[in-house]
Amino acid sequence: MKLKGIKIKLHPTENQKAFIDKNLSLNRFVWNKLLGMQQDRFENGGDYVNAYGMHYLMKALKIEFPFLKEAESTSLEYTSDDLDDAFTRFFTKQNNHPRFKSRKHPKNTYKSKCINHNIMIVDTHYLKLPKLGLVKFFGGHRIQDKIKSATIRRELNGSYTATIHVEHEPKVFEKTGNVIGIDLGLTDLVIQSDGFKLKNKQFERSLAKNRRQWERKFARRHTQALAKIEEAKAQGIDLKLSDFKNLHKAKEHIARISKKIANQRANYLQQYTTSLVRRFDLIAMENLSTKKLMQNHHLARSIADASWAKIKSMLTYKCDWYGKELILVDARYTSQICSHCGENTGKKPLHIRRFDCPHCHSVGIDRDVNAANNILNKALA
Ligand SMILES: [Zn+2]
């Protein structure tokens, strides 16, 4: 059995929104309290209190701060487990030291555990959640398997979503006997060894005008707000940026558009990777180093980078679910080697799009398709 997360959009009532917001702040309170306690202990030469210890402390916290009883109780345990994870990653040098959650950088998720069917789908359009009751949503048909937990999230654009974690018995796709190598590019996001190319669609273009309009509105409202704050200050009135509702609204609009773009792109990649895993038993691709990817700041490049990283992670879990194989290879020299005879023909300038081999005299192979074939050959070797 594996766990699978299914993300859905929630349509909570005002009361339900208020509870989610309150529960988020209670979880933030617990996070900060436990983190503060760990720091105090450290400064006084004490040992780190592990996950069990923190669970135990929760009882004491609930007595000291009775309002914590209003929280969804399993979410508080998950929060202490999260903190333990954050510390573990810090101790193993994978992360920075856990930080306090502020109003500006709040906690935007909490997780509830499914106990005795307290999380379930009712009439396909309602999700029953602990302490919240029935929350409206669409797409209940997607959740068929046994529910283990749910993560509730307040998105940056002010909407609410839930990721439902279900037990998932992976279906195995039929074996096809086919193998494929894929090379990654900019104009074409993916070039397959069989010659197929996946276009790098510019999803932001269709919504760019709208986003620019809102960005301009935001900039204008921001300047106006700053001027008004100055004005008010002269009269002894203390105003903050957060007092300007329409400024906040513009920000939400921008976030909503960005989200839409991200969703379109994610769908595009989901469809592509699923069809790839369905059609091929073995997929070979370059082993991307995420560290290298993070260093590029050029926009087109950074979008492609993000897509490549997504393709890699989608193929990783889909191959695992559906019984197929993903092989990651070192992509060095794949643009220089002839995929027919294996001879390294040296560096070529980027404007040369066709690969002609002086050794075996094969001519006219598309440069990127040649590279994709080399990636496949490396995986099969
Ligand atoms: Zn050759």
Structural class: alpha+beta
Q: Roughly how many Å apart are the termini?
A: 32 Å
**Helix percentage:** 40-55%
Order of helices and strands: EHHHEEEEEEEEEHHEHHEEEH
Largest sheet: 7 strands, antiparallel
Lateral arrangement of strands in the main beta sheet = 2-6-7-1-5-4-3
Q: Approximately how much beta-strand content do the residues carry?
A: 15-25%
Oligomer: single chain
Q: Gyration radius, to the nearest Å?
A: 26 Å
- The overall average pLDDT, rounded, is 90
Count of beta strands: 14
3D shape: globular
Given the structure, what is the number of helices?
A: 8
Task: Provide the low-confidence segments as ranges.
Answer: none
Bound molecules: zinc ion
Domain Cas12f1-like TNB: 308-375
Domain Transposase putative helix-turn-helix: 1-46
Family: In the C-terminal section; belongs to the transposase 35 family.
Keywords: DNA recombination, DNA-binding, Metal-binding, Transposition, Zinc
What secondary-structure arrangement, pairings included, does this model have?
Elements: E1 2-11, H1 14-43, H2 51-64, H3 73-91, E2 109-113, E3 120-122, E4 126-129, E5 133-137, E6 147-154, E7 160-168, E8 179-184, E9 188-192, E10 197-199, H4 203-234, H5 245-279, E11 282-286, H6 290-294, H7 299-322, E12 325-329, E13 354-355, E14 365-366, H8 367-380
Parallel strand pairs: 8-11, 11-12
Antiparallel strand pairs: 1-5, 1-7, 2-6, 3-4, 4-5, 6-7, 8-9, 9-10, 13-14
Helix pairs in contact: 1-3, 2-3, 4-5, 5-7
The structure holds zinc ion.
